[in-house]
Q: What sequence folds into this?
């Protein structure tokens, strides 16, 4: 007889802590114009990101996965038994499966993500696949205050898991503030397991964000499609083009949507003028050296314990202890 599983209970952030409309308008009123990358992630954005992770040019996901697979025994020993795993920006929890399969008697798995329906679907799949693990999804913007659910089993320690180099999508100041939140969530005796993309050759980086199949361009333009549908905007998607460039200083990929002509666009009751060639910066993806990241983690109260990299030193997975 098939075993019955109950859908994991979702914890949702108090909606009054975020004001999407205000954030969008604030970004578009700035010069140069910006939009926060968190608006990429609706259902379609999450699906497009999945496709990005499978692209030949996008080395990040497969490199991080290979590091995790190679060092999983060491990671299991460091984490120890009865931990609670709290994942920020869990997406479809692809890399997490390696941890869920190997970690010793996990007390709970708490995936936190802004893409609500994608999170619910991923949590249901995982709960069915790992019936012995309590899965407690949280739909939240993790840059704003949110409550963590209490697992039924008291964990021995909290491990904050932040894969994918999503930390790179925050400015160094915002990344530090986020690491400080993680430091708090890790609690006494806790640790941080994080994926950090490393500085490398400009050509490799620019290829990864300008794939030949055009999936990253679709992902970028989907933000405008979302603004049209959810925030009363009238962007002409054919009049904006995807562009991703690497800036050596401060060491980051910048993704832009460039206006192909002079135009006026309405968004959420306001109008915005675009010159021909003017762009909206939709995402920065900071690339770190190991020393730079160690210094930032240190400022947030973490001591780097072990760093694993691939042979080319493209990507790192880092285990840091909470001081
Ligand atoms: N961890 C996965 C997914 C990375 S994509 C991986 O390594 O492949 C980035 C993820 O972070 C997406 O699932 C997106 O929905 C989520 N995300 C981005 N900004 C967020 C925010 N401010 N709050 C919560 N989740 C966020
Ligand atoms: C989620 N994040 C780490 C990805 C990145 O590489 O900065 C998002 C992405 N943007 C374009 N391609 C992938």
A:
């Amino acid at each position: 007889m098939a075993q019955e599983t109950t859908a994991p209970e979702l914890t949702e952030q108090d909606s009054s802590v975020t004001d999407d409309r205000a954030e969008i308008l604030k970004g578009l009123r700035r010069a140069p114009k910006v939009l926060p990358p968190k608006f990429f992630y609706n259902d379609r954005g999450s699906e497009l990101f999945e496709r990005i992770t499978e692209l030949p040019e996008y080395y990040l996901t497969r490199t991080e996965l290979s590091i995790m697979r190679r060092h999983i025994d060491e990671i299991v020993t460091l984490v120890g038994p009865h931990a609670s795993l709290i994942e920020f920006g869990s997406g479809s929890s692809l890399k997490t499966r390696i941890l869920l399969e190997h970690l010793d008697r996990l007390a709970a798995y708490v995936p936190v993500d802004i893409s609500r329906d994608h999170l619910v679907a991923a949590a249901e799949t995982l709960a069915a696949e790992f019936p012995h693990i309590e899965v407690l999804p949280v739909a939240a913007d993790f840059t704003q205050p949110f409550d963590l659910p209490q697992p039924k089993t008291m964990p021995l320690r909290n491990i904050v898991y932040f894969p994918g180099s999503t930390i790179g999508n925050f400015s160094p100041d915002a990344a530090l503030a986020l690491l400080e939140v993680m430091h708090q969530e890790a609690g006494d005796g806790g640790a941080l397991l994080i994926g950090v993309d490393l500085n490398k050759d400009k050509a490799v980086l620019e290829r990864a964000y300008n794939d030949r199949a055009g999936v990253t361009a679709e992902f970028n333009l989907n933000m405008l499609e979302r603004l049209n549908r959810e925030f009363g905007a009238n962007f002409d998607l054919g009049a904006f083009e995807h562009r991703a460039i690497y800036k050596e200083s401060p060491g980051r990929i910048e993704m832009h949507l460039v206006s192909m002509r002079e135009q006026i666009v309405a968004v959420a009751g306001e109008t915005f003028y675009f010159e021909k060639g003017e762009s909206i910066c939709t995402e920065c993806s900071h690339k770190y050296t190991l020393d730079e990241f160690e210094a930032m983690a240190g400022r947030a109260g973490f001591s780097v314990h072990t760093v694993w990299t691939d042979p080319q030193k493209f990507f790192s997975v880092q285990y840091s202890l909470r001081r």
Residues 59-79 form the longest helix (21 residues). DSSP finds nine helices and 14 strands in the chain. The mean pLDDT is 97. The pocket of N,N-dimethyl-L-histidine (ligand 2) is lined by residues 52, 60, 164-166, 168-169, 209, 216, 283, 285 (CB under 6 Å).
